[in-house]
Amino acid sequence: MEIAQLGNPVLRSIAVPISNVWERRVQKLTDDLIATAMETNGVGIAAPQVAQSDRLFILASRPNLRYPKAPKMEPEAIINPKIIARSDEVVKDWEGCLSVPGIRGLVPRSSTIEVEYTSRDGKLHRQEFADFVARIFQHEYDHLEGIVFLDRVETTRDLMSEDEYQKMVIVSC
């Protein structure tokens, strides 16, 4: 699917809740988002990033060129998520975004979150995520709220080009 780029109004809008997870359109969107995340080396992707204003994102952590140290997990559809609790501990780490190509930012995020969401099979889940997976969840959740990672960066000194970030990653591996 084509990725909406920064400046597209859908990225700054609050996404609409999904009323029927079994709807054919929702199931197809879920499949398309998973395929798009895999093709673009994303570890997550939200419906607004493909110009769909739905409260749905894919959580798909796995090591790849963009995130070589990411933990591996099966892609999970996260529908109508809520963040119930956040840890007091906040950690700054580098993030990028398919909708903001070429830029990385040092973003502060809660290290642990407790969440509720519905999966694509209609089941309600309540669980805790930590570290990198919690970061992905918060990043994608922000997309549903019309927020991009640049809004969370504390200073422009916490930004760098993707090329410089890749040089830094290669050195640290």
Describe the structure.
This protein is an alpha+beta fold and 173 residues long. The chain has one domain (9-172): Alpha-Beta Complex (Peptide Deformylase), CATH 3.90.45.10. It is 24% helix and 31% strand. The chain contains 3 helices and 8 strands, in the order αβββββββαβα. Strands 1-2-3-6-7 form a 5-stranded antiparallel beta sheet. A 3-stranded antiparallel beta sheet has the order 4-5-8. A hairpin with a 5-residue loop joins strand 6 and strand 7 (124-130). The model has no long low-confidence stretch (mean pLDDT 94).
Show the helix and strand layout:
Layout: H1 24-39, E1 44-46, E2 56-59, E3 76-86, E4 90-97, E5 100-110, E6 112-118, E7 124-130, H2 131-144, E8 159-161, H3 162-172
Within CATH, the superfamily carries the name Peptide deformylase
Number of strands: 8
Unreliable stretches (pLDDT < 50, length at least 5) are none
Rg, rounded, reads 15 Å
How many structural domains?
A: 1
How much of the polypeptide forms β-strand, as a percent range? Answer: 25-35%
Question: Which word captures the global form?
Answer: globular
Under the CATH scheme, which architecture would be assigned?
A: Alpha-Beta Complex
Across the major sheet, the strand order is: 1-2-3-6-7
Put the structure in a nutshell.
The protein is 24% helix and 31% strand. The protein has 3 helices and 8 strands, in the order H-E-E-E-E-E-E-E-H-E-H. The strands form 2 sheets. A 5-stranded antiparallel beta sheet has the order 1-2-3-6-7. Strands 4-5-8 form a 3-stranded antiparallel beta sheet.
